[in-house]
């Protein structure tokens, strides 16, 4: 009997240990720390890891960064909709993919404390979703990166039509709209500005000018830095990051170009919503914003000064109007038609 009791006691103790250990696994944030947080982002991997590590150092927990192009991540979240794997989604070449995602059931409303008193539109820029489905954490400006050893500032393109100049044939790169949020923004903005018929004609000609269309939004800027292209389409910070690393590149702010926030969203039914919220709050804190600023992004927090030479005030002088309703209605169709109409 004593031996049976000892065996039963041992079994109960072992079972209790296993259950305790299992209760500490998984994505929930119960307990002392924020738990394990799954972080989907197409933004610069080194910068995103730095954000994750800074959060972990300050708040504990574990942030798992999953990097891929914007459209790849959106497709992944759609595939995971019955069993979401991400807690937050940060970045996508601006607000357009987030606007398109609102009705897809993959993101959830959450308004961070800092953004509670923001107007939906501040100084002509939409900074948050009217129903709280995303919040901007920085400002992106789409423009042209050029290699300063191959192109002078005077001859560099100043408008989107300048990219069609025969002198740039075989010397341009832009990213693939089927994979990149940066390129999707480029395509949609030009369709809004030109109308679809003229827009498709424009991109047919622009594609003939290009020597490559990499999947990554940062790919064209890296190609320009390596001398593989003279001109690349990209965001402002991409050029200034390369410049800070000693590369011979600079940025042109074109006339009539998208200037918009790059948002963060809570993922619908993610495994660790409380941890996700805590990470979103961190991204908007001065600590999180300073990391973005040190990577030459324009932070949305006015108390943080960026290293970028491009001010928001200067960028707004070239900002084009974006018809968000048109984007929501046509985002998927335009992206799907890219391979059919442009080759």
TrEMBL record:
Secretion signal span: 1-23
GO terms under biological process: thiamine transport
Keyword Signal: yes
Source organism superkingdom: Bacteria
Any one cellular-component term (Gene Ontology): outer membrane-bounded periplasmic space
Single Gene Ontology MF annotation: thiamine pyrophosphate binding
Keywords: Signal
Record-linked CDD domains: PBP2_Fe3_thiamine_like
Pfam families: SBP_bac_6
PROSITE patterns noted in UniProt: PROKAR_LIPOPROTEIN
Keyword Metal-binding: no
Name assigned to this protein: Iron(III) transport system substrate-binding protein
Native source organism of the sequence: Tenuibacillus multivorans
Species classification: Bacteria, Bacillati, Bacillota, Bacilli, Bacillales
């Amino acid at each position: 009997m004593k031996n049976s009791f000892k065996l039963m006691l041992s079994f109960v103790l072992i079972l209790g240990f296993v259950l305790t250990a299992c209760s500490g696994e998984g994505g929930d944030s119960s307990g002392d720390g924020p738990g394990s947080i799954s972080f989907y982002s197409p933004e610069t991997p080194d910068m995103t890891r730095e954000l994750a590590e800074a959060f972990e150092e300050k708040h504990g927990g574990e942030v798992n960064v999953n990097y891929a192009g914007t459209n790849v991540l959106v497709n992944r979240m759609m595939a995971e909709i019955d069993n979401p794997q991400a807690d937050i989604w940060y970045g996508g070449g601006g607000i357009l993919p987030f606007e398109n995602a609102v009705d897809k059931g993959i993101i959830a409303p959450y308004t961070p404390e800092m953004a509670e008193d923001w107007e939906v539109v501040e100084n002509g820029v939409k900074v948050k979703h009217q129903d709280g489905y995303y919040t901007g954490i920085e400002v992106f400006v789409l423009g042209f990166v050029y290699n300063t050893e191959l192109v002078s500032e005077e001859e560099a393109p100043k408008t989107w039509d300048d990219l069609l100049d025969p002198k740039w044939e075989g010397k341009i790169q832009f990213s693939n709209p089927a994979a990149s949020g940066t390129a999707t923004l480029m395509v949609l903005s030009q369709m809004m500005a030109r109308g679809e018929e003229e827009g498709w004609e424009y991109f047919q000609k622009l594609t003939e000018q290009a020597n490559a269309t990499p999947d990554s939004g940062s790919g064209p800027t890296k190609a320009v830095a390596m001398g593989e292209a003279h001109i690349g389409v990209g965001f402002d910070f991409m050029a200034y990051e390369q410049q800070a690393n000693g590369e011979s590149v600079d940025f042109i702010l074109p006339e009539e170009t998208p200037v918009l926030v790059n948002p963060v969203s809570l993922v619908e039914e993610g495994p660790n919503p409380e941890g996700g919220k805590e990470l979103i709050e961190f991204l908007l804190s001065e600590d999180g914003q300073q990391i973005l600023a040190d990577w030459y992004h324009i932070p949305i927090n006015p108390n943080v000064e960026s290293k970028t030479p491009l001010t928001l005030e200067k960028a707004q002088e070239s900002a084009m109007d974006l018809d968000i309703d048109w984007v929501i209605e046509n985002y998927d169709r335009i992206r799907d038609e890219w391979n059919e109409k442009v080759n």
